[in-house]
Fold each of these.
Amino acid sequence: MSLPSAPSSTYRVQPSVVVSIFDHYLRRPERSERVIGALLGTEADGVVKINNSFPVPYLINPEIRLDQVHFKKMLELHRPAFPHEKVVGWYVTGVTVDGFVNAVHNENFVRMADNEANVVLTVDTKLEKGLEIAAYNSHATVVGGKQNFVEFRPVDIEVSSENADPSAADLLLRGSSTIPSHLANNLSDLETLLAEVRAYIESVKNGSAAPINDIGRSLLFTTTTINDDDFDKSYRNFVQDLLMVAYLASLTRAHLKLNDRQ
């Protein structure tokens, strides 16, 4: 029985890739509980960088079958813009490596990607415990000279951007407590204004200041109450719009690189 050694590579994924996965999940077909896609990037000097991704449709009838035509077409469109990138793995929404993941990997992605897709990235889209991303490296276990089963070993992965300035998506995904200086200044100014408004309201209530009708009407319109359902719907729409903007920005960047090579 032959067991491979533990992986020694370092794994990094771009924030835009995670945002694209969430966008794919939000736009999934109605009856689909999970989404699947390819991960593309580079591997050099022990560092695997996941820079791009694209969705891959699939059907369960009764076995899991990925759309190989779609996969090949997307790969052909990707290569002219990013000639140095290859398929390094694939992603799936969810938190566990189960029979679904095993079937997709062994019966689909390994064959479609010529055995190069060794990384499996799982992304929890429920966000009940914050952002949960896990990565696994697949290893074939050989018994008696024949492959017996595939083992998925957890590996450390970090969400990191190569840009000097952290993007909004980067800060959002990291849950970073570091706020850019200009945003911190704006928040400080807002706190000052809110303190002035509160002081004015208290002075009107205790009779030390005369009420001004125009200010009162403005505060009434500004502080209109909103129920929980409306707020939840508004927040979800905002997040979906943010994901779409990030996806379109990534798509635009790819087209620009493609045009530069023509």
Amino acid sequence: FVSRKLSYDYASPFVSLSIMFVFALLPLIPIYAKHVQIRDLFRGGLITGILLFGGFALQTVGLSLTTPQNSSFITAIYVKLVPVVSFIVTRKVPYFVEIVGFVIALVGTWFLTTGGSTNFSLGVGDFLTFGCTICFASHIVALDMVATDTNFAGVSIGQLLWVAVLSIMIFWPLDHVDQGDHNDRGAFLHPNWIFFLCQIHNGTLATGFAFTAIGWCMRHTTTTRTAFICALEPVFAALSSYVYYHETMTRAKLI
């Protein structure tokens, strides 16, 4: 989150997103290319890639139309929606202890991202951001469904490839729409060493490695456990903001 925000100073959001996923693919291609067939890119990679792209696209546009506080809280809800989406798709009812755990995680996310504030109004950007949470939750469920039945390498490369392709196709029209401070110049790219360091981190580690690791781990654990672990995302986002942006950690956030 911190490095993505910094990269927007040097590239418009969807240009940055396109480059980020290219960087995500680069280290995976030499590792997995010989294990991937063309059909693998479509079997599991296409649907997971579309859902992943939908999440990032709606999050990017939604963030420009709402406050960071609202965006961070609503986006973090996606891990709590995973059991709901899983139930709709598989009809498998979550265990009671899992329901209790997600309620606690939801309350904790509220305190962490809003500081316990009740001054929370909803606008167009918030509804777009909520759409991104549905896409991200659906992506986790879809990844779980295809992880054991398809070529793991094909799904890993395929989903990242489709996000990169869709981002490249769409950045010109969307980055020319007035979306706030970072988009008043339309699509732009002013790369320097800071931008490339951000993209190496965002693409290689936070995207390529992270989503490949999630896909591999989901072959050995449940969707609910994966969602619980992903619920730690706003915790590390808050710690990163504290270290790099010196944001105040209030008592409510520490709780």
Amino acid sequence: MAAKTNNNTNDSSALRELKDTIKTQAAEIDRLKNELTKNGIVAVKKKVVVPSGGHAHGGAADNEDILDYKEKSSFAIAYERVPWLAVFLFSLSFTALIMNGFEHTLSKQIELAYFVPLMAGHGGNTGGQAVGTVLSALSAGIITRQDAWKVIGKEATSGLIMGVILGAMVGPISHYVMGISKHVATVVSVTFPLLSTIASFLGSSLPFVCVILGLDPAVIAAPAMTSFVDVTGLLCYFLIANQVFKAFGLEL
């Protein structure tokens, strides 16, 4: 009987020790969970930082905006973006002035008008790729403001290469497949490299400009690039057309 009582006491003691061990482990697990959660939040905050190159301005406000985006209302988002879109919309009015200034050239060579949307779309696509790449690299901390000229030079060179390749494809296709005149096809081929270079240059440089000025590159860089590329690309297109037509001996 005494042995049985002793065994029961030992079992109870072992059970208490097991319960204490479980409680200790549960407390340790909770502590680790809390620590991991805090570290995860810090990591997210660090991940969305847009580096300001070691300077005080241009980074903190953007981090808060990105983290608060989920909680923002549609009205708040629109309120922040409308002023900049209005500015860029006004700048796009210069395209109408350019078209009006080269109305005589268009009336003589109506085929030029066929490629105006193509030029605008290609410039926007090329610049958009550069903007997206640079913004992603800035956000991840892969590049900083000190890398600006290196990045811009790399993107502009790649834009030139892409323009040469695409121009060599689009020109002959437009002439031999679409039946476009040889002089207009030549204009398209020559314009592509210059347009791609300008678009890549602007697309890679504007995010850095926004960061330096303490503005939000995610909101401003892409529409600014599109507006500037449309205006400069269209102007280059018609200026090149005038020179090519003169080389072909055409009267304007």
